[in-house]
Structure formats: C-alpha cells, structure tokens
C-alpha cells in the first residue's frame, strides 16, 4: 500500500519507536530481561496504593465516576482539575494563573507534537522557522514529532569535569545567537536523558533571551516541581507569561493515563484546545479525575516530596555505586545525577558506537538506550554522541545491578 508523505514520515523507524518496541518486548518476554532502557517510572508501592484508594473512592461517587469515564471533557481538558492545578501553582509560587492558562493533552508526547508544529515549521510567507535546543543531548522524543524535516537546531554544551568521574553539561551562551529563523527555545529540566538540571541562572538567562527575541521559552518539566519532584539539587521552578511550562502525570506513577499538562498564556491554551478538538474531540479524563483531589488538597506535593523524590534519590546513589564497582579499571564518566531517573554514561574510549554496544547488550538480555538518539537538531558530527548511553534505574534493583554488571563485562571484552 502506498502511504502519503505524512504517512511515510510517521511510520518510519525512529528512536522513539525503537524504545517503545523494546519496552513492549521486554515486558512480555518469558525469559528474564534487564530493562535499563525504558522511561517507565518505578512501581512505588505507596504511590500505587494511594491511587488504588482514589479509584475505589471514585467508583463509589457516581458523579465523579461519570466525569472520569462517561462524559466528554472540554477540549482544553477536565475543568475541575485545571482549576485545582491553577490554584496549587498560585499558592506555591505566586504565579497569576487560572484554568484559562492550563490545557491537558493526550500525554506529553502528543502535547509536544501539537505545540512544536503550532509554533514552528512552514509559514504562509514561505519561511521555515525552527525550535532551538540550547543544550544537547536532549529528549529523543522531540526528534520525531515535526511535520517538516529540520524542525530543530541544537547547540553543543560546555562540559564541566567534576570529582569521582562525574561531569555536568552547561548551556554555552557564547554560541547561542537567536536568529530570525527561531520560533521557540526548548529545554527539559530535569533533562531526559542526562539527569541534568539547568541552574536558576541558566533558566533566567534563557528566559531573557527568549523575551528579547519575542519567542516563547518552552520548559519540559515532566520530572520537575511541584510534582513529581524528582530533583536532587537546589532549583527553583520558573514561569512567566512568555514561558510554556509542560508537565505530566506520567512520572508521578500514572504513565498509562496519558495526561500531559501545558501551562501558558491563554492564546496558546486556546490554540491547543482547538487542536485537541480536531485531533481527538476531547482529552481523556481518567488521570485528571483520579489526581484532582490530590492536587486540590496539596497532597500531591507531599507524596512527591516525601515518597517519590527520596525513592529515586536512593536509587540514584545505589546505581552510581554499582557503576563504580562494575566499571573499575575502565575509562568512563557519569553525568552528575541531579534529577529524573537516568544515569548518562560517557565512554570516551569506546571502540564501537553506542548503537553497536546497544545491540550487543540486547543479545544478553540487557536493554539500554544508545546516545545517538538524544541529539536532535545537532548538525555537526560530534563524536561524543556515539560515546554515550542512557541507563534507567527505575526498575527492580536486581535487574539494574545485573544489567550494569553485564555492561561492565562487555566493555572489558571490547578491550581484549
């Protein structure tokens, strides 16, 4: 069958497709696999128990159950949840928000599809405008969502060497000119894949650059504040009327409900609502109804601060210890884990590409993600992109430790 240009573009094999195929195969495999490559959050018992309680409560409240399952929401998403979230953000940060500043989408990935193609791409005057990623590596899922090729342009970071074989990426502001072809600036904070958290100073400088250039600053806050708070370093959340803040219910432990959240000025929200109406009529309300009471009471902050963040911070320390043990004698560096739930490994003397190493590890039942996928929009051939791997430490500790040990074995085998 012959597909349209759109069909060919969105059926090609991509890094995102590879990630999700691997995740699906690993979860259904009969033999044991070590899933260090997926983005699925951990199954934290206290979190699952709390949402199970909310399900039971909702099932016993006919009006809430109808809102969750039996009624369409508005195109911008379930109104009571949006009102509750706006009130939470006003209380916590003093941001002047209402429900008109918030839209829900069918997951963050579809939200970025709508948002990036709303702001960038081909314009009526024949020009092409792009999204600037001021720091790379960046989230692999951005790469595949553009209706046009070349939707992204990225800049290399500076690299700060730290103690104990750690390092940190920083925005290289000396290389960050905002040309007329830039439609928006986008960063993830904390960063998937690296666990990097932009400093407050970097965020403020980016916000000023964006405002001066009259383009929005998009901050992907899927792992950030106020929930799920998977942030291990000092960092203040940021929003102003030129910022588009993207949040999610996935990383708090609800990836299957597919609810992304966009906080922006009303004209952006109205545009997204119109796109939602055309693409899906309405966004699903399961996650919004399930989480609304926790948002309204502020319990979602307590759960994030007291349960979710300590859980992942302990896992990060543990995974670092396992890497140090398994990689003893190897030339390696780890990005300082400041947030999210990944370790980003840099193997500067790797004799093969990270994609080839990924294939070798799969043969031994270990699933990671090769670094090549995480440099969307980088036009120059930087060897660093082939020397990195992303490891998730969100899954069960025995699998993570065994997978790290096998990775160490493979690195030693490559030396011989």
Explain what the structure shows.
Helix content is 41%, strand content 15%. The mean pLDDT is 94. It is of the alpha/beta class. The protein is built from 12 helices and 16 strands. The relative contact order is 0.17. A hairpin with a 6-residue loop joins strand 12 and strand 13. It folds into 2 domains: 157 residues, Aspartate Aminotransferase, domain 1; 226 residues, Type I PLP-dependent aspartate aminotransferase-like (Major domain) (Aspartate Aminotransferase, domain 2), CATH 3.40.640.10. The termini are far apart. The strands form 3 sheets. Strands 2, 3, 4, 5, 8, 9, 10 and 11 form an 8-stranded mixed sheet that branches. A 6-stranded mixed sheet has the order 6-7-12-13-16-15, covered by helices on one side. The protein has a two-stranded parallel sheet with strand order 1-14.
| First-to-last CA distance | 48 Å
CATH class wording of the largest domain = Alpha Beta
Structural class comes to alpha/beta
CATH superfamily of the largest domain: Type I PLP-dependent aspartate aminotransferase-like (Major domain)
Considering DSSP H and I runs of 4 or more, what fraction of the residues is helical?
40-55%
Supply the number of helical segments: 12
Poorly predicted parts = none
Work out the number of β strands: 16
- What's the gyration radius in Å? 21 Å
According to CATH, the fold-level topology of the largest domain is: Aspartate Aminotransferase, domain 2
In N-to-C order, the SSE pattern is HHEHHHEHEEEEEEHEEEHHHEEHEEEH
How many strands, which pairing sense, and closed or not: the largest β-sheet?
A: 8 strands, mixed
**Count of all domains:** 2
Percent of residues in beta strands: 15-25%
Mean pLDDT: 94
Shape: globular
- Going by CATH, the architecture of the largest domain would be 3-Layer(aba) Sandwich
């Amino acid at each position: 069958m012959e597909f349209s240009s759109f069909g060919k573009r969105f059926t090609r094999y991509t890094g995102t497709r590879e990630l999700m195929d691997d995740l699906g195969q690993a979860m259904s495999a009969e033999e044991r696999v070590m899933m260090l490559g997926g983005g699925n959050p951990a199954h934290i018992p206290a979190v699952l128990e709390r949402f199970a309680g909310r399900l039971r409560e909702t099932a016993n409240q006919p009006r809430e159950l109808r809102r969750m399952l039996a009624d369409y929401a508005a195109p911008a998403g379930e109104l009571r949840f949006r009102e509750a979230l706006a009130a939470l953000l006003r209380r916590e940060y003093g941001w002047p928000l209402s429900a008109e500043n918030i839209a829900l989408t069918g997951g963050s990935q579809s939200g970025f599809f709508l948002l990036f193609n709303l702001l960038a791409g081909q314009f009526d005057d024949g020009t092409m405008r792009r999204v600037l990623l001021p720091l790379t590596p960046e989230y692999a899922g951005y790469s595949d969502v553009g209706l046009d090729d070349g939707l992204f342009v990225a800049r290399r970071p500076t690299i700060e060497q730290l103690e104990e074989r750690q390092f940190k990426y920083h925005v290289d502001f000396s290389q960050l000119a905002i040309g007329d072809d830039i439609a928006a600036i986008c960063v993830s904070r904390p960063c998937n894949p690296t666990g990097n958290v932009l400093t407050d100073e970097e965020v403020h400088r980016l916000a000023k650059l964006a405002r001066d250039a009259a383009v929005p600053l998009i901050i992907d806050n899927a792992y950030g504040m106020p929930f799920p708070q998977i942030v291990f370093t000092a960092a203040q959340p940021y929003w102003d009327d030129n910022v588009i803040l993207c949040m999610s219910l996935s990383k708090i432990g609800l990836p299957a409900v597919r609810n992304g959240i966009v906080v922006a000025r009303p004209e952006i929200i109205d545009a997204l609502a119109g796109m939602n109406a055309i693409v899906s009529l309405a966004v699903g309300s399961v996650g919004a109804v399930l989480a609304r009471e926790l948002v309204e009471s502020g319990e979602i902050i307590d759960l994030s601060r007291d349960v979710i963040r300590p859980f992942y911070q302990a896992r990060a320390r543990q995974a670092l210890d396992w890497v140090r043990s398994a990689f003893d004698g190897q030339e390696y560096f780890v990005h300082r884990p400041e947030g999210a739930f990944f370790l980003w490994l840099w193997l500067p003397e790797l004799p093969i590409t990270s994609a080839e190493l990924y294939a070798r590890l799969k043969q031994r039942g270990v699933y990671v993600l090769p670094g090549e996928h995480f440099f969307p929009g980088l036009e120059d051939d930087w060897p660093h992109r082939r020397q990195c791997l992303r490891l998730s430490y969100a899954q069960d500790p025995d699998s993570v430790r065994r997978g790290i040990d096998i990775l160490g074995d493979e690195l030693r085998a490559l030396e011989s």
